[in-house]
Amino acid sequence: MTTTPPSPSTSSPPAKRLKSSGSIPDVIKTNEFTAINEAPIKSEFLPDTNGHTVIIPKEASASGSSSKPQQTQKKKNRKIKRTLPEKYSSADVTFHDVRDFIGADLVDEVIGRKDGSEWEVPEGLELFKEVELDVGAFTVSGESISLLPNSSDKPWTIITPFAHPGDKIRAKIYKHDRLTSYADLVEILEHSEEYRGGEGDRRKYPEGGCRYFGECGGCQLQPVPYPLQLLHKKRTVQLAYQRFSDLPSTALPTIQPTIGSPKEWAYRTKITPHFDAPPKWFQKQMKEKKVSEEGEMNASTTNPTDPTEERRGWETRIGFERKGRPGVLDIEECPIATPVLNSKLTEERKRVQDTILSFTRGATILLRDSLSPPDPLPTSETPFQPSEAEEEKHVAITNHKLNVYEKVGKYLFSFSAGSFFQNNNSILIPLTDYVKEAIFPTDSLGGEGVKVPTHLVDTYCGSGLFGITLSERFERVAGVEISHESIAAAKKNAEMNGLQDKTTWLCGKAEDIFGGLDEKGFEGGKSCVVVDPPRKGCDEPFLSQLLFFKPLTIVYVSCNVHTQARDVGYLIRESERKGEEKGWKYKVESLRGFDLFPQTAHVESVAVLRLVEN
Ligand SMILES: C[S@@+](CC[C@H](N)C(=O)[O-])C[C@H]1O[C@@H](n2cnc3c(N)ncnc32)[C@H](O)[C@@H]1O
């Protein structure tokens, strides 16, 4: 944890805010993805001493500069690293926001000068300088973007969190980048007339919202009314395809409205708060103090010093990343997490606080919402039977090896707490129903010459979410996954739901993902494929195999619409190239977001690709 309090000069929380009133702008220019309430995890899980809670250690002081002297940080911040962002990364997406906001022609002209002037900060815009800005738009990541007033020969933007289009703000610069600087919000001088109803400090909206808004790096869109959050995400999908698919607009359908989450709060079934270990100087100080106290105790019968007093100078903070400054923000509750996780968080915080001196490295606590394990456990002989009457009991799991149970419609899922499962259970029925309907559109059923798939291939299947929930409509289902643990869970889930006879689960490498399917009777001509890869998207070997397999329908589900747009673009172009002579290709039939992550700027995107044959 921090050895010194974060310097108020490197970043300040939004200060007192003024009145806001009125309604909402109809255009949201939006951009990026930051981790939701999750620290970058740098290493393996480790069991704690009592064997109950599992903690994921991260690199000592991953919040990094927090333990360095303030002076070093300042020096570092003065230099702009002239590195271009990795393609499709959040920084790349933000640069596209900057480019769109300034105007592509102007930006390309500045970059085209080839004199590096896009990196040269306008005269007088030093670090820690305060500037007044009229906020122009949202970035995709939900931050505000404004034009620096009176910027000399080139335009320059300022990105500031927690402000809204139409606000007039004062912001303090803390970092420079290409054609943009990043700033902390100091004060909202005038709230946007049209943006949000209510008066006073925007962080207090909505009623029952989060008291950490304005400091926590988690929920960027929290004060944005929910319909506007959905609009923001629709725009994100649209921008991603414009920027990254490399397809002409004629090849893309109109983006459909984003489907909202049934739960806008208390939906998140997994959180991973983290904490830093005490710095060495503090450990040493505590050790010395203990030795001297033991000496005193032997000499007298007086009470030892109060332990809270002992820890003066360094405090345990357990929570999430702070926005715009290093270090952990101490979080006692997270209103997007389910109630059972918040109760457990209180217990876990106390446990860590009481034993903090035993940690030499920072760590992450895993908290996962689970149904109480069914008793007896369903088996292939006595499969799961959902019962509406029974009240569901939830528990919080903290050991990554223990099984978590979740129900999706009439199916029961089990997987180890440390492995992947979607984090918002409330939207999984709308999501899986949508995928089902996309595969079997009512208007194409029974149509002349329409081939209806009988086989489903669930790639990147995890513990079998799509394969199992969609199984009813198919004769056979196969799931393919790289993780042995997830495949074992998928197999067990199929058995628990009585689906063992129609399902096949294969642990496959990306290079040979469809390898084992032939012999199981899966042919592209009677199949559809669900693709649900991690954030980095699919690799080329996978996409080539998918085209070679040539399924009737491809439904691509992704938590990173930017890499999805890249991959969909590749599939469409390659299918045109490969299939040209033989008269087939894929077309993008629909694109739409699902809001798996309300209050944040993240969106899950579903693309439906249909095989078209002449
Ligand atoms: C976003 S999760 C989707 C899981 C599942 N579809 C669900 O909704 O629960 C992505 C999954 O892809 C798996 N995966 C990652 N790389 C892979 C690869 N190269 N080939 C196959 N599966 C992979 C991961 O283990 C993970 O389970």
From TrEMBL:
<feature type="region of interest" description="Disordered">
    <location>
        <begin position="58"/>
        <end position="83"/>
    </location>
</feature>
<feature type="region of interest" description="Disordered">
    <location>
        <begin position="368"/>
        <end position="390"/>
    </location>
</feature>
<dbReference type="InterPro" id="IPR010280">
    <property type="entry name" value="U5_MeTrfase_fam"/>
</dbReference>
<feature type="binding site">
    <location>
        <position position="422"/>
    </location>
    <ligand>
        <name>S-adenosyl-L-methionine</name>
    </ligand>
</feature>
<dbReference type="InterPro" id="IPR012340">
    <property type="entry name" value="NA-bd_OB-fold"/>
</dbReference>
<feature type="compositionally biased region" description="Basic residues">
    <location>
        <begin position="73"/>
        <end position="82"/>
    </location>
</feature>
<keyword id="KW-0808">Transferase</keyword>
<feature type="region of interest" description="Disordered">
    <location>
        <begin position="1"/>
        <end position="26"/>
    </location>
</feature>
<feature type="compositionally biased region" description="Low complexity">
    <location>
        <begin position="63"/>
        <end position="72"/>
    </location>
</feature>
<feature type="binding site">
    <location>
        <position position="481"/>
    </location>
    <ligand>
        <name>S-adenosyl-L-methionine</name>
    </ligand>
</feature>
<feature type="binding site">
    <location>
        <position position="460"/>
    </location>
    <ligand>
        <name>S-adenosyl-L-methionine</name>
    </ligand>
</feature>
<dbReference type="GO" id="GO:0032259">
    <property type="term" value="P:methylation"/>
</dbReference>
<dbReference type="GO" id="GO:0030697">
    <property type="term" value="F:tRNA (uracil(54)-C5)-methyltransferase activity, S-adenosyl methionine-dependent"/>
</dbReference>
<dbReference type="InterPro" id="IPR030390">
    <property type="entry name" value="MeTrfase_TrmA_AS"/>
</dbReference>
<dbReference type="InterPro" id="IPR029063">
    <property type="entry name" value="SAM-dependent_MTases_sf"/>
</dbReference>
<dbReference type="InterPro" id="IPR025795">
    <property type="entry name" value="tRNA_(uracil-5-)_MeTrfase"/>
</dbReference>
<comment type="similarity">
    <text>Belongs to the class I-like SAM-binding methyltransferase superfamily. RNA M5U methyltransferase family.</text>
</comment>
<feature type="active site">
    <location>
        <position position="559"/>
    </location>
</feature>
<dbReference type="InterPro" id="IPR030391">
    <property type="entry name" value="MeTrfase_TrmA_CS"/>
</dbReference>
<feature type="region of interest" description="Disordered">
    <location>
        <begin position="289"/>
        <end position="312"/>
    </location>
</feature>
<feature type="active site" description="Nucleophile">
    <location>
        <position position="559"/>
    </location>
</feature>
<dbReference type="GO" id="GO:0008033">
    <property type="term" value="P:tRNA processing"/>
</dbReference>
<keyword id="KW-0489">Methyltransferase</keyword>
<feature type="binding site">
    <location>
        <position position="532"/>
    </location>
    <ligand>
        <name>S-adenosyl-L-methionine</name>
    </ligand>
</feature>
<dbReference type="GO" id="GO:0009451">
    <property type="term" value="P:RNA modification"/>
</dbReference>
<protein>
    <submittedName>
        <fullName>tRNA (Uracil-5-)-methyltransferase</fullName>
    </submittedName>
</protein>
<keyword id="KW-0949">S-adenosyl-L-methionine</keyword>
<dbReference type="Pfam" id="PF05958">
    <property type="entry name" value="tRNA_U5-meth_tr"/>
</dbReference>
